[in-house]
Specification:
By secondary structure, the chain is of the alpha+beta class. It folds into two domains: 67 residues, 3-Layer(aba) Sandwich (Rossmann fold); 72 residues, P-loop containing nucleotide triphosphate hydrolases (Rossmann fold). Helix content is 52%, strand content 16%. Strands 1-2 form a two-stranded antiparallel sheet. The chain has a two-stranded parallel ribbon with strand order 3-4. The protein starts with 7 loop residues before the first helix and ends with a helix.
């Protein structure tokens, strides 16, 4: 699926038209969403849609598509490890780091509503686990 960059005005118009399967103002003035038309287009091509989004968006997609969707929650082993990983990137200042930690704590409260939880303790193992889970889901469809 491709990213489409549109103005806030156009985005709000699409919200009114119910064009999104999910959308959210992730940060002030920064909207993200998934167009229903894109999901339907990809499915019409016989392909599988894979989305990477925050928990609210993921749960909205699951709510709409139910058994046609698989909701996978990727969980850090613990908050200390998450903070270390974020610091290690070198892209966060203290304020943005705290904002990300707060958002992660909020998102963790939704983990139990997902179909499956994968703990990202070791990246290679977590990637393989997700691949196996998604492959099994696609095969059963």
């Amino acid at each position: 699926m491709d990213y489409y960059f549109i103005t806030s005005e156009d985005f709000k118009k699409k919200i009114e038209e119910n064009a999104f399967v999910e959308w959210e103002e992730v940060y002030q003035g920064c909207f993200y969403g998934t167009l229903k038309s894109e999901i339907e287009r990809i499915w019409a091509e016989g392909k599988t849609v894979v989305l990477d989004m925050d928990v609210v968006g993921g749960l909205n997609v699951k709510k709409i598509y139910d058994s046609q969707a698989l909701a996978v929650f990727i969980k850090p082993p613990n908050m200390e490890t998450l903070a270390e990983r974020l610091k290690g990137r070198g892209t966060e200042n203290e304020s943005s780091l705290q904002q990300r930690i707060n958002k992660a704590n909020f998102e963790l409260s939704f983990a139990g509503q997902f179909d499956v939880i994968v703990v990202n303790d070791r990246l290679e193992d977590a990637c393989q686990e997700v691949l196996d889970i998604v492959s099994d889901f696609i095969e059963k469809k």
